[in-house]
Amino acid sequence: MAKSYKTVLMMGNPNVGKSALFNRLTGGDAVVSNYPGTTVDYTEGVLIVSGQEYEVIDAPGTYSLEARDAAEGVAVRLLAENPDAAVLIVLDATRVERGLYLVLEVIERGYPVIIALNMIDAARERQIAVDFRMLQKILGAPVVPTSAVSGEGVRDLAEMIRKAQRVDIAKVRARADGQFDEPETGCGLCGGC
Amino acid sequence: MALPAQDRWDLVDAITRRTVITGAYRRNLGDVLGDLTVKPLTGIPVAVAVLYAFWSIFCSFAGDLLTDGFMVKAFDNRWLPWLQGVWPDPASIHYFLFVGDPLAGNCFEAFGVLTSGLFVAIGVVLPAIFIFYLMMAVLEDSGYLPRLAVLTDTVFHRIGLHGYAIVPAILGLGCNVPAVTGIRVLETRKQRFIMMTLLAIFIPCGAQLGVMLEVIPDTMGWVMLFLIIGFGVFGFLLDRIIPGSNPEILVDVPAYHWPLWENVAKKLMNRTKSFLKDAVPFVLLGVLIVNLLYLVGVIDALAVLLEPVFVAWFGVPKETVGPLIAAFLRKDLAVAQLSTIAMTPYQMITAVVLVSIYFPCVATFVVMLQEGWRELLAAVGVLMVTVFVYGGLMHAIGILMGVA
Q1: Exposed end of chain A (fewer CB within 10 Å): N or C?
Q2: Hey, is B50 helix, strand or coil?
Q3: How many whole angstroms separate alpha carbon A72 and alpha carbon A57?
């Protein structure tokens, strides 16, 4: 049974659409632009979905948890200051590989995670197909394709936040090599289906 | 459990191999434009054209169309005479504070809270920042800024920064407050300190640009030139004095997008709203405070005290002390006030440059303090030296050119 979290911390590489997604989820006024480093401080908002109230925090973009500049420092500090938060990691669907590094780092720190595969429309346009179900299976945490621009998938993402999962990195390693163990309790891998 | 970085990258590769299939990609117009605007041969002419277009649209729409064409007429021909007519007792203190000079023929000279204060805030600055932020939003949302950063990288390396410093610099032309926080995108303390100092000293904000456009349209180019030269010279010096490193630019250049109309409108609304809410009261309060200081004689006393520095060293009239006090509250107000003092064109250029480089406005000062008090103190130290040296230097240049 998934535990319910009160705080949702949004993290991800710079310029993947975190603030745009944050505005979609919370109706907030975070500034959205098309250049990395638009958000250098955090914004907080409230999301109410299925009777559950979440405090959502939009963090500045970061490539890893070793801060490279002061804005990334804010993101890393937010993660440390919210040990009970679920982390919503936003990936750019056109360059999934770049954001996965951060996903793994957050997983290793033991935070429950949920992934938004954002800019899915741009990926389709560029003939990039991401098998999000396979990604979900390997990571063992929910992966939801979204487009913050059109609003596609945002509703699903909001519903899925309660299913954010803590993941054992060793199992991710095994599954990435094709070793899928039998689900322990029914289809309990990620709760994403 | 934490993996070594290399294992983590291996795992990323393994996951990507199983989940991502990349099909044949056809380059589109955006990609072609993307390349053309970042390669120096084609990119630099485009950058010049973009900045020139930005500037001329700003001047013609904000200055000529909205302010001169509408606001000046409304305020000088309707509002001012009406207010001078209905406000009781022209000899009283409240008349002096709120309406100002009963004989004034325009809203700059009157200098009352409800005449000059309202006119500067609503008549001059509001149209200027509205147009400025509209174009800024288009620049921000298109994806052009990171390309400009790549293009200007070489130049910025000469002053201890890299190309991405152009982003806070351009933000600062709108308002220095978000620009100071925007400096966080730079990697080292040295870079952040240099940028914060140069920003606070040499980058005029949108409000100030708007007023300059209105009161000194003919000599504004010179003021900007002196500010740009100062930015370069003092950046070059700071780079040599401040210890620390300046890493290479590492920036993800995004694909071009058409700006989304809703997003542009939303940003424009929010920024205009925050100007009306946060800045307008400051302009009005600024006029009130300056008028009160005149009433109790503080400004005249300071003018006499500082006369040697102002007249002999900077070469400007001692009356410019008043605007310098206003400059701490609002730079736009200070420039407006300067315009009513009798000066030669060159003295006006010097005085406006001094108002720009002397002390950041109080709002900028507060955010600088939030980024670190040590940096703030050091920046203020550099600033004092800069004002003194650069002000004297400008006077000397004026003497040599025979125009001071």
Answers
A1: N
A2: helix
A3: 15
pTM confidence score: 0.89
DSSP one-letter string for A70-94: HHHHHHHHHHHH-TT-EEEEEEEGG
> Is the CB of A128 inside 8 Å of chain B's CB atoms?
yes
Put simply, whether A150 touches B (Cβ < 8 Å) is no
pLDDT band at A188 (very low <50, low <70, confident <90, very high): very low
Tokens linked to A191 = 């709760």
Do the Cβ atoms of B330 and B207 come closer than 8 Å?
yes
Strands A128-130 and B20-22, by their bridges, are: antiparallel
Query: In this prediction, does ipTM exceed 0.85?
Result: yes
Mutation site for A-interface testing, chosen from B17, B184, B251 by largest number of A Cβ within 10 Å: B184
Q: How many CB atoms lie within 10 A of CB B15?
A: 23
Q: With H, G, I as helix, E, B as strand and everything else as coil, classify residue B336.
A: helix
- C-alpha dist (Å) from residue B196 to A77, B158, B167, B295: 23, 16, 12, 36
Distance of CA B296 to the CA centre of its chain: 32
User: How far is it, in rounded angstroms, from Cα A192 to Cα A142?
Assistant: 5
The pLDDT tens digits of the residues spanning A162-175 come to 999 999 999 999 99
Q: Report CA-CA distances (Å) from A77 to A66, A70, A73, A106, B192.
A: 11, 10, 6, 13, 19
Q: What percent of chain B has pLDDT over 70?
A: 100
Count of Cβ atoms closer than 10 Å to residue A80 Cβ:
9
- Report the distance separating Cα B10 and Cα A62, nearest Å: 20
> Phi then psi for A122, rounded to 5 degrees?
-65, -35
Rounded to an integer, what distance in angstroms lies between the CA atom of residue B178 and that of residue A41?
Answer: 10
The CA distance from A173 to B8, in Å, is 9
Q: Which residues pair with A90 in a beta bridge?
A: A12, A116
Please state, in angstroms and rounded to a whole number, the distance separating the CA atoms of residues A171 and A179: 9
Q: Tens digit of pLDDT for each residue in B229-285?
A: 999 999 999 999 999 999 998 888 999 989 999 999 999 999 999 999 988 998 999
Q: What fold characterizes domain A7-176?
A: Rossmann fold (3.40.50)
Q: What's the mean pLDDT in A54-77? A: 96
Residue with tokens 């006393």: B301
Picking from A134, A147, A142, the residue whose alpha carbon sits closest to that of residue A159 is A142
Q: Looking at the predicted structure, is the pLDDT value of residue A1 above 80?
A: no
Q: What is the distance between the alpha carbons of residues B84 and B78, in angstroms, rounded to a whole number?
A: 10
Residue ranges covered by each domain of chain B = 33-401
Give the pLDDT band of residue A191 (cuts 50, 70, 90).
low
Q: Which residues of B touch A104 (CB under 8 A)?
A: 3, 8, 11-12
Q: Which of residues 142-181 of B touch A (CB under 8 A)?
A: 142-143, 145-146, 164, 167, 181
H helices, E strands: number in chain B? 23, 1
